[in-house]
Specification:
Helices cover 29% and strands 27% of the residues. By secondary structure, the chain is α+β, with helices and mostly antiparallel strands.
Amino acid sequence: MQKKLLHSLPIFLTASILLWGCASGKSGKIPDVSMLSVLDQDSSLYVAVPVRYHREFVSSLISTNTGLASNTASTIAGRIENLYLGIGCPEDSGRIQIAADGSFPSFAVGMALNKKNGWTKKTYTAESTPEALDAGWPNKFPYYTGSSFPYKVSFPTQKEMVVAKKIGTMLENYASRPDSTLLDYCAFVNLDGNPTRDILFYAGDPSRFAAGLISEMAATWFVSADGKISRLQSGDYSLSARLHFADKNRKKVVVALMSLAGIQVKDADDTAVFVSNIKVSKKQIESLVTVKGF
């Protein structure tokens, strides 16, 4: 099964370079979709990557998780502009959702995503909302399933891609087009109109983040975290974040522990601190945004 999965992944990802979107709405003005808003709203960690500034990292992430040759992975990364990841929730820690905007043209979808290669094309009809349906916004989307690939893949248009094991909620979000600015995490990880070069993140449940980027014992220290990961000229990465505690007393205890661990902090407010210039490796970041088995 493992070999079959790795064999099918290059077919899928190569096809994503070449795929034209098939879904379109009725005539009339249809609001743009923020791919951030397509992710489910109960993930524990959200990560946003402006790929043009981190193509090598994204290429490595693709290659590591799929077994693709590095040059093919680099070509795929070159087609993505903004990459958004939603990583699990406490009750579903093995979930990963991917939403990307970029350019995904294809005249070879019939050759790559066909029955011979183990792919089945299906259509998902979103319930959507009365307002969206009355406005003629699209609610039917093609998606693809692979016989050896546990994730479903959809290209609503030539500019967008979504990937998930359970893709229905993402396509429901796409159909109803929720206002991304109303999402709790939008202010921290929104790349629309934001010219940042940094990887942005928001952790509503920061246990995974804290364990992966600070230490295992830090898994229960914080109640939320937000910040950025910057690539240095040396090729290394640097973490800066705002860390939130449950209350003042918890903050006092944990800040003392962080000081003992050599982590310097600055006060943000009564229940939060800033940390900056914490060196992290590419391997640590990849581990943070990778779900085992993907």
